[in-house]
Amino acid sequence: MSNESFTERDYTIVSALALNYSSAYYVDFDADEIHPYRISDVIEQQSGSYFRSKPKYWDAITTYIERNTAPEDKEELLKVVSYENLCRELKDKKMFMYDYRVLRNGRTEYYRMKVANVTEGEGLHKAVMGFADISTQKTKDIERYAYYSVITGGYNYNRFKEELSKRTEKGALTAMDIYAFKIVNSTCGVQKGDEALKAAWRCIVDSIDEDDYAAHINADHFVIFFSDTDHDSINRKLALITERLEAMSKEMEIPRMSPYFGTAEWEPGDLPEQIYGNATFAKHSIKGDSSRNYAYYSKEDSDKIMLAKQMEDAFEGALANREFEVWFQPKYNPGGNELMGAEALVRWRKDGKLVSPGLFIPVFEKNGMIRRLDEYVFRSVCCQQKKWKEQGMSMIPVSVNISRVSLYFQNVVETYKNILDEYDIQPQLIPLEITESAAVANAEIKALTDKFFNMGFSLHMDDFGTGYSSLSSLNQMHFNTLKLDKSIIDYIGNYGGDKLLEHTIALAKDLGLHVTAEGVENETQINFLKELHCDSIQGYYFSKPLPLDEFTERLGSRSAVFEESVSDKNGNMESCNIREVVDEAIAAAAPYVKARVREFNFNTTPFTDMIYINRESVKELLKSIIELTADKVSGDGSVLFIVSEVSVPDMPYVSYKFVAVGINAHGSYSDINSIMRSDPRIAVAQKLVGMLGGSIIGEMEDNKDLDIVVRLPFKKADQPAAEAVSVE
Ligand code: C2E
Ligand code: MG
Ligand code: MG
Question: Where are the beta strands (DSSP E) in 212-323?
Answer without folding.
Answer: 213-218, 221-226, 259-266, 294-296
